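Reminder to self: tokens first, then the designed residues, so the page reads top to bottom the way the pipeline ran.
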């Protein structure tokens, strides 16, 4: 369960990365790695740096694939240009990138 306190920490810029494990009692041995990024008008991390981070998380979790979700808050980009789903291979890991 994702509590408000945890959700507040996720979006707080001053809080270091969190690893959140969400389990479902009705699903046996299900594990996913999902990295969430918020992109603002100022340039923060590049997509490549984010993919490096996902690859490190996947390595720690013993997984070969994961997700990178990028919320794009830039004002100079049309909404349609912010929405995409694609799959890439990076550092021997498969990552699905979702733009929104």
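Designed residues (100 positions):
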């Amino acid at each position: 369960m994702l509590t408000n306190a945890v959700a507040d920490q996720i979006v707080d810029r001053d809080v270091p990365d969190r690893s959140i494990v969400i389990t479902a009692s009705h699903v046996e041995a299900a594990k996913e790695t999902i990295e969430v990024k918020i992109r603002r008008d100022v340039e923060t991390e590049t997509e490549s740096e984010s993919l490096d981070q996902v690859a490190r998380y996947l390595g720690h979790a013993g997984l070969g694939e994961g997700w990178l979700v990028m919320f794009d808050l830039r004002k100079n980009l049309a909404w349609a240009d912010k929405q995409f789903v694609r799959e890439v291979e990076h550092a021997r890991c498969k990552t699905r990138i979702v733009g929104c």
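Helices lie at 4-11, 47-61, 79-82.
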